[in-house]
Every structure is written in C-alpha cells, then in structure tokens.
Amino acid sequence: ALAQQFGLGRAALPEEIAAWDMDVAPDGTGLPAGSGSVEDGEMLFSENCAVCHGEFAEGVDNWPKLAGGDGTLDHDDPLKTVGSYWPYLSTVWDYVHRSMPFGGAQSLSTDEVYAITAYILYSNYLVDDDFVLSNENFLDVEMPNAGGFIVDDRDQSEAHFWTAEPCMENCKDTVEITMRAAVLDVTPEEVSEAEATAKAELKAAAEKQQT
Amino acid sequence: MTDQSQPSTTRRGFLKAGLATGGAIAAGGAAQAAQEPDPLITEIQPWAQGLGDGVDATPYGLPIEYESDVIRRNVEWLTADTISSINFTPIHALDGTITPQGCAFERHHSGAIELRKEDYRLMINGLVDRPLIFTYADLERFPRENRVYFCECAANSGMEWAGAQLNGAQFTHGMIHNMEYSGVPLRTLLEEAGVKPEGKWVYVEGADASSNGRSIPLEKAMDDVLVAFKANGEALRKEHGYPVRLVVPGWEGNMWVKWLRRVEVTTQAIESREETSKYTDTLADGTSRKWTWVMDAKSVITSPSPQSPVTHGPGPLVITGLAWSGRGAITRVDVSIDGGKTWQIARLAQEGQDKALSRFYLDINWDGSEMFLQSRAIDSTGYVQPTKTQLREVRGLNSIYHNNGIQTWWVNANGEAENVEIS
C-alpha cells in the first residue's frame, strides 16, 4: 500500500539537482567528463593546497598529510593518507571537488579536480609524472588499501561483551595505578595553552587525534 | 555583614571542628550543632530587604554569573584549527539528563554556518518517483514527533585509547549531548517522494562547505531517523544545525548531519570522506572497520570527578553519572568504589529510555579513604560495558573512535579526583 502523501514540496528541477548532487560513488557513478595531468596538478596544488598540505602533500604542522605512511597501518602510530589508507579514488575526487580548499570550497573546476587528484596520486608514488587522469581511466587506478576495510563486525568479534551477568564480588585481588592523566598534564586548566603547545608529546597526540 | 567570604569561612571552621572531634560527622546522622550563629541567618541580607530585577531585565536569559565555569571548553592541541574542531559539554557540572543547548558540545568541519529559514531548502532526489524541494515552511506542515536522544561524537573518549590523558569528565566524555527533538520522520519525507525498489541507501549532506556527507542504509532511514527543527523546545542553535538537522538515534554523532540540505536515495554507499578516511576504526593488524554506526553502551561518573572533587569531607556522598546505549535502553548501572573488585547496583533516576542518556546515583557514606570509582552500564540487549583492557584486546590502540571502556577516577583522601588507568 502506498503511504500517505501530503502534496507538500515541489518538483526539483534538473538544474537544481545538477547543482547540488555532486557525489561520486566508488564505481564512478556521478563522475563528470574531464581530465587533468600530474603536471597541471602540481601547479594547482602549489597555488591552492600547499600552504596547508605542503608542496609534496606531506602536510604542514598539524594539517592533514595526504601522502606517505604506506605500510604503517599496523604500527603504533599509523600515518593514514590517501595512499596508505583511503580505499577509493572516488572519495578523493568527490571531497576535493566539494569541500576543498578549506575556506574556499567549490572553487575548483572539473578538470582542475582531475589534475589535483592526479598530483595526489603522484605524490603517493601511485602513478608516473606523465600520468593524465580522466573519467575514462579513473577506475584503472589501484588504491593500495582498497582491501583494508571490513564491515562492522562487533556483533561477532565482541560477542563476549554481551555477558549475561557480570562479576559483582571478589572480581580481582589487586588494583594498581598504571597511568595518570596528571602526569601527562595536557588538560587545559592544568597548563597554559602556550606551554601545552610547546610539548612534543602533545603534537604526537594531536596528530593521532585528528578527526 | 554582607561579605560573602565570611559565612563560608565560618562553615569551613565548623567542618574542621567537626573533623577534629573524630568521626562526629559519620556517627549518628543527626544534624551537627553550630558553634556560633550563622550571620547569613542572623543578619538581614540585602536580597531579603531590597528588590531584584524586573521581568523586563532579561528577555532571553543566561545562567547566573556564579555558574560561569559551566561552559563548553576547547582543547587547542587536539586539532589544527578551531573551525574543523570539537569542544566539550561540561557534563561534570550538570545533573539530570537534558543538556542545556547553550553549553552542548559542538563539532564542525567547516565552522558553524548561519542559514536563515528563508534561505533553507531541502532536496530529496535520486531513486525516487518524484524528486522534491521543501522549504522550511513545508517541513512544519508534516506530522511531527517528539523524542529524546543522545548525540555522541564517534571520537568521544578517543584521546584515551592509549591511556589516561585528559583530566576531567568534560574532556574524556563530554563530546555528547542529550536533547528532546521535535521534527518530522525522514520516512515521511521519503514516502512523499516515493522511494523506488532499487533504493537501498540514502546519502545525506549538509549545506556547509564540508557537507559532511554520509551514507545511511534505507532500513535505518525508514525506521527512527528524524528531520529535526526544534531541540529542548526551541529552534536548533546555529551551531547545532539551525534550522534543520538530522537526528540518527543511537548512531555516531557524525551522521547527525547539520544544516541538512539533501537526501539522495542510492543503490550503494557513496563511501564519502567521512566514512572512509574518517569514522573508520583501525585494528591492531592494520585492517579497519567501516560503518561502525552504533554507539555501544557506556557510562561515566560525572561527580566526583577531576573537575568535581569532594569538598565536604567524609560522610554522606552522592556518586552520580550518566549512562547510555545506542542499542537500546539502559537497564542497569553498577558502581565500584574499589577499582572493580566489588560492585553495587546504582539507582537509575528514572527508567532507561531508548537511545537516550540515563542518570544514575549511588549514595554512600564515605569514610575518607581513597577510592577508585568506576561505573559499568548494561543495556536492554544484555551488553555489558567492557573495560578498556577488554576493548584493547580486540581492537588494539589505534581505533580512535568508539572508546566506550570503563572510566576510573582515583579519589584521594582530600577528595581530589584524577583520571587514571588501573590494573
């Protein structure tokens, strides 16, 4: 049975849908026709992106690193970049097109986004310097970590957390302090922000926490 | 005598005197005898004599100045800038379950934008019979629902994966708020457009530059997701998505898209930046979980806690906190004062509500010795909040998101509390 309709709203026009529906799926759905080279991308990246992300996409200060980190995902402090972590190239194109540069989003043309995407691939040693990315060859690019994701499996891998009755008495013999936040001392009230930012371990923590 | 410091000095003197007599406070439970008359009582105070503010003084009020520490706080070093960043709800100072909107945490990816109702448009497109555009006024004409839900950032407690780091419940657990939302079921809007049989997902995005696009399976979209325009009775705050946000009960806060501008029905997940690069959870072997939507059962003692120490000495002590689960209602909270050796069942202020915060209390008679306070939530699915050690055994240290491990506060004999990890 059809649900009740209220006759509210109006039909969306094709121009309106085209203006807002810009997303690109992993299979290339939504990708517009166009192309761009690593060479053009290098120049565009330098002009639009390098002030935060570095000339080689290696990142400046705490700004995201877009290249490097391959093989680090099982390390203590994995470096997650487009090359080391991102599963789909579609996401790079889509995100750059819609939301970058930070503070000047939606200012890049279709071809410029192809070129910048090509340069980010080059910065990650995934294509050669004469590579030209287009909607035609887009799906040919292999992303190193494409197979690195599993769908949420908590129901199975953490099934033991669904315990019928947790321990209430005599649950352990000893309680020892193994770590203290006051020793690390990074909470805003505890130290001035100038002091806090000066500490190297904070920087490491900040990189880890970039969400 | 109107000097406000005088009475409290007197009270402290009284407390010390009480302590000096050795266990007088803990014994008996009868009220203590004052040693001198309290001038707050014996002297006429100005507020009992003069006049207060008129009703025209404050068309829209803020908390009294003495509560000026009950505010959102930022931790500068967490992110590269304050625009794509987070702040924290002062949960250590709140009680009950409803979060005041004015101090409810914020998380933006390109700042809190200003979007007038007149400029607001919502598009439904993709695999629908009739792609539609709604104005804000259109949305107000659909049948409405009211529901209370928690919104918890996926990264709440994320700084604590590697160990005790930030000293306060606001910082360790404050990426959360709980509000009563009024809005239209997303299902109603999708049915207005007519979802085609091939439609399996919806892709939702905001009007801000970051867009924050996320993919949601159609079953969830047709179940309990709300397109909300009121929170705690009034319009959404700018920083919470004014005029319209998505409410995705039980699921990670990132999916609660603010300034919602478009809902697209698709055959597949878009695998956007916010569900590939971010909001994926890396395990010890280097593989990563994706689509970890649900926020598991979790709790924290909000007082005593590092920002809310015990200042009254031994005797009656209210231990209180919050518990919640994205899988259902909180059915029980256990509290330990000895680091998990023994547990007591706490009292829920009211019956647990589906995917909403619950307030719990444990009233004890504190003997003044050190405590290791912990709370452990249990939800309606039988899930028991794990320890951090248990979580790390499955996930390692690099998941960033979804840290719902049991929190420990070490309360010393002075009543000061510290964020610690224990064996």
TrEMBL record, chain B:
Pfam families: Mo-co_dimer, Oxidored_molyb. Gene3D superfamilies: 2.60.40.650, Oxidoreductase, molybdopterin-binding domain. It comes from the Bacteria. Transmembrane segments: none annotated. Keywords: Metal-binding, Molybdenum, Oxidoreductase. Residues 289-407 form the Moybdenum cofactor oxidoreductase dimerisation domain. The keyword Isomerase does not apply. One of its GO terms (biological process) is sulfur compound metabolic process. Residues 115-270 form the Oxidoreductase molybdopterin-binding domain. InterPro entries: Ig_E-set (IPR014756), MoCF_OxRdtse_dimer (IPR005066), Mopterin_OxRdtase_euk (IPR008335), OxRdtase_Mopterin-bd_dom (IPR000572), OxRdtase_Mopterin-bd_sf (IPR036374), Sulfite_DH_SoxC (IPR030835), TAT_signal (IPR006311). Its cofactor is Mo-molybdopterin. GO terms for molecular function: heme binding; molybdenum ion binding; molybdopterin cofactor binding; sulfite oxidase activity. This is Sulfur dehydrogenase subunit SoxC. It comes from Rhodovulum bhavnagarense.
